[in-house]
């Protein structure tokens, strides 16, 4: 990829992400493609994902920052707004994107989404249904998945 | 949010502002949706204008030469009248209204997440959504207006007159480049040409006090000239009636005309030549006995033109000396490289550099900070060497 033509904004964001990482979030660019980031988000405390380490991939399209980054969970997660392919249901990644948002703010938003699942606007119908009909059980499943798939191993 | 700044009733009909420097040729910019001097001003422009536009003949090339072949001259900083001025110049740069303003609450570009749509990382299938072509948006440069006197609205207080405990006195900090006077009105109505008339002259007549020029002066209304606020209902004191242009407390700060310092008799001076700053406020009593002054509006009256002063959000961080490439508060939120110099109207978010503003307009019609529709872009240069 044309890393030599990397916009200065991306370089700057990358530097700031590395020098002042947001708590519970790490993002580092791939060596062969500076637009591709390996991301890790720690499951927020007080959430079913607490204790988990979630891997994501983030890609900055050519149009970035006029277009949103593309982000996907690589770690399996039981969440009403994240589907089995890891795709995330978050408005700022779609129609509510603003070029004032950054990689950092996107990842913070995803972290917040883990703390506040929204089964009323689901991406995974089944999980959302589970969440709405028996939240305690759904939360248990989410904790179980966190133990199984996001234990940081 | 109802930002209505127009007041056609008050708009002066006598003033034309000085002919601009050679009018930049706007027709070269047709291909770009945010040309700096667009042909006919969009209708919404009057929404913000409190002053007269130059006659059309000054704004547009003559009809017999609609497509001149010369290169347009560089956009001149003063050539576009605009009426958008941040209001607080007290600290460092006392001359121009495009100077900094302390961010009041400060905006933050963090936008709270809402769920609702799936994003996809499959670049092959996920084409970027191509927005509809953005509607035409005016992109202008700020005009600088020199303000000779400024009342720092954050310092305005009413306090009990210690030697006359039933009465209240006004105090504040102000800057003045010339000698002048402060006039304190209670329940003053604004009339044409920025004249103020007390609505209840039987209760309180305006108090006028002269001052000498100087920056950062403290104004204390002399003891004994205060007002017994007990005369008024608390409800009336805390209520503004902008539709009737009556405010409980009005401070008119005026500088004497340098050309005619001997003549301090206001009535002989045509109002169109006066230079005033008006501060309109309400008096609130929350808990306790002290009145709290809340400024509703500040008006600048310069050479027969009435400006309403509004804050620009995000301009404060620019006022500090120099542009440090590592200061996130000063850089354009889009490229994160250039200093921001362009504000969005009507939301007043100063957040972009001119180049990114232009580019953004090709993609979107929303403010990057608050997502309100962009009606107008305005370039604001801050550097003091550019006076």
UniProtKB/TrEMBL annotation, chain A:
Gene3D superfamilies: Ubiquitin Conjugating Enzyme. One of its GO terms (biological process) is protein K63-linked ubiquitination. GO terms for cellular component: nucleus. SMART domains: UBCc. PROSITE patterns: UBC_1, UBC_2. Residues 5-151 form the UBC core domain. This is E2 ubiquitin-conjugating enzyme. It is an enzyme of class 2 (transferase). Belongs to the ubiquitin-conjugating enzyme family. The lineage of its organism: Eukaryota, Viridiplantae, Streptophyta, Embryophyta, Tracheophyta. Pfam families: UQ_con. Interacts with yeast and human Mms2, with the RING domain of RGLG2 and with UEV1A, UEV1B, UEV1C and UEV1D. The keyword Chaperone does not apply. InterPro entries: UBC, UBQ-conjugating_AS, UBQ-conjugating_enzyme/RWD. CDD domains: UBCc_UBE2N. GO terms for molecular function: ATP binding; ligase activity; ubiquitin conjugating enzyme activity. Catalyzes the synthesis of non-canonical poly-ubiquitin chains that are linked through 'Lys-63'. This type of poly-ubiquitination does not lead to protein degradation by the proteasome. Mediates transcriptional activation of target genes. Required for postreplication repair of UV-damaged DNA and for adapting root developmental programs to suboptimal availability of iron. The active site is at 89 (glycyl thioester intermediate). The keyword Ligase applies.
UniProtKB/TrEMBL annotation, chain B:
Transmembrane segments: none annotated. Residues 36-63 are annotated as: Disordered. Residues 332-371 form the RING-type domain. Residues 53-63 have a biased composition (Pro residues). PROSITE patterns: ZF_RING_2 (PS50089). Pfam families: RNF157-like_N (PF26192), zf-C3HC4_3 (PF13920). CDD domains: mRING-HC-C3HC5_MGRN1-like (cd16789). The keyword Ribonucleoprotein does not apply. Its EC number is 2.3.2.27. Keywords: Lipoprotein, Metal-binding, Myristate, Transferase, Ubl conjugation pathway, Zinc, Zinc-finger. It is an enzyme of class 2 (transferase). GO terms for biological process: protein ubiquitination. It comes from the Eukaryota. Pathway: Protein modification; protein ubiquitination. GO terms for molecular function: ubiquitin protein ligase activity; zinc ion binding. It catalyses: S-ubiquitinyl-[E2 ubiquitin-conjugating enzyme]-L-cysteine + [acceptor protein]-L-lysine = [E2 ubiquitin-conjugating enzyme]-L-cysteine + N(6)-ubiquitinyl-[acceptor protein]-L-lysine. Belongs to the RING-type zinc finger family. LOG2 subfamily. This is RING-type E3 ubiquitin transferase. It comes from Populus tomentosa (Chinese white poplar).
